[in-house]
Amino acid sequence: MHSIYFGPEHHEFRRNVRRFVENEIAPHADQWEQARAIPRQAFRRMGELGFLGVCFPEEYGGAEGDIFMAMALLEELARSRMGGFAAAVAVQQFMAPQHIHKYGSEELKRKYLAGSISGEMVGALGVTEPGAGSDVAAIRAKASRQGDHYLINGAKTFITNGADGHFITLACKTEPGAGARGISLIVVDLDAPGVSCTRRLEKMGWHASDTAELTFEDVRAPLANLVGQENKGFYYIMQAFQLERLACAAMGLGLAQLCLEHAVKYMGERNAFGAPLSNLQALAHRLAELSARQEAARQLTYHAAWLYQNDLPCVAQCSMAKLLACELAKRVADECLQFFGGYGLMEEYPMARLLRDSRLGTIVAGTSEVMREIIARLSFGRADYK
Ligand SMILES: Cc1cc2nc3c(=O)[nH]c(=O)nc-3n(C[C@H](O)[C@H](O)[C@H](O)COP(=O)(O)OP(=O)(O)OC[C@H]3O[C@@H](n4cnc5c(N)ncnc54)[C@H](O)[C@@H]3O)c2cc1C
């Protein structure tokens, strides 16, 4: 692939990730999907290979790569044949430890960032609650100062890596009544007394990824576990959304690419009316249309990533990339399943899982409606996201 964004080192990295994912992860896909879990050893192995600290500093074990190394990794994760594996790794690297990396103390970085990069620790990010999803400012989990620690009470839901993980970067109200200005991020060990996983949630897709409902009852976390400044959490969460949305866009591209490749192969092999399906213009032109849209979504995502990397304003482009790439992945998975006819619905063929997994992208890390709202506000000059 020739690209202004990817050089020989990115191509080599992409090949290495693909080889690893196809040889060491994909063969376990059916088993892990059924078990609704990813063995911790898989994270340790990725840590060993340097795949969990792609953009983090070397002093914590990271590779100090650029955003396009991250894009390559995220796209290739789809080849694990588990959207849930891709999601778990994305949270582990691009969500849970991001705030710690940007705003955390040296002590937090040495323990939780380095632990995430090596794969010894699995991390989660806890923002969503039963009563607050898109409306982050409405969260109710509360952390109050008591001596040298915070006392935390509340509930979180839909938390990726929440059941089997080691720590959670938790959004809490430290000043109830102050709305968005009263939220802080606090790192909490998931085995701390008072933390319980009340349910592992059953989902339509991402089966291998653990999605937890968590409660916090008089949980004590040291004051030193505060990430950055008190009451600045909302701002940190909004800042981090750009990377999260780029990650979701890249995962959407990876999934759609895999669907297109499966469809091309199948349409070349399957005969109907004496010729391969690929000879049927009605199907081939639809595949062509999807391929064109995929290329457009890809280039928009790379452009947004380039803006992000160069510290240029990119809220609109990251939102557009997530919106278009994730909506497209859903459409590509649906249409490619159709090309498979009845086999598309069979679990021993790849399309059924890909379609299920494609459904999650337009909901997590900001829904498509929220992406449109952000873009609309910027278009009409009703917001000025810096
Ligand atoms: C599998 C999975 C994994 C997840 N992992 C995590 C995780 O690790 N950590 C975490 O904190 N969260 C996680 N989430 C939560 C996810 O980010 C939320 O589901 C998402 O932000 C939407 O919130 P909600 O589900 O409460 O929907 P709501 O916010 O209640 O939205 C309901 C509907 O209203 C629409 N809507 C809401 N606000 C607006 C608006 N302003 N304009 C137009 N339409 C609007 C939405 O688009 C949606 O269609 C996960 C979710 C899932 C399903």
Automatic annotation (TrEMBL):
UniProt keyword annotations, A-Z: Branched-chain amino acid catabolism, FAD, Flavoprotein, Oxidoreductase
Pfam families, per the entry: Acyl-CoA_dh_1 (PF00441), Acyl-CoA_dh_M (PF02770), Acyl-CoA_dh_N (PF02771)
GO biological process: branched-chain amino acid catabolic process
Similarity annotation: Belongs to the acyl-CoA dehydrogenase family.
Keyword Hydrolase on entry: no
E.C. no: 1.3.8.4
PANTHER family: ACYL-COA DEHYDROGENASE, ISOVALERYL-COA DEHYDROGENASE, MITOCHONDRIAL-RELATED
Organism: Desulfarculus baarsii (strain ATCC 33931 / DSM 2075 / LMG 7858 / VKM B-1802 / 2st14)
Required cofactor names: FAD
Pathway: Amino-acid degradation; L-valine degradation
Molecular functions per Gene Ontology: 3-methylbutanoyl-CoA dehydrogenase activity; flavin adenine dinucleotide binding
Acyl-CoA dehydrogenase/oxidase N-terminal domain residues: 8-120
Keyword Flavoprotein among record annotations: yes
Domain Acyl-CoA dehydrogenase/oxidase C-terminal: 231-377
Name of the protein: Isovaleryl-CoA dehydrogenase
Subunit structure: Homotetramer.
Domain called Acyl-CoA oxidase/dehydrogenase middle: residue spans: 124-219
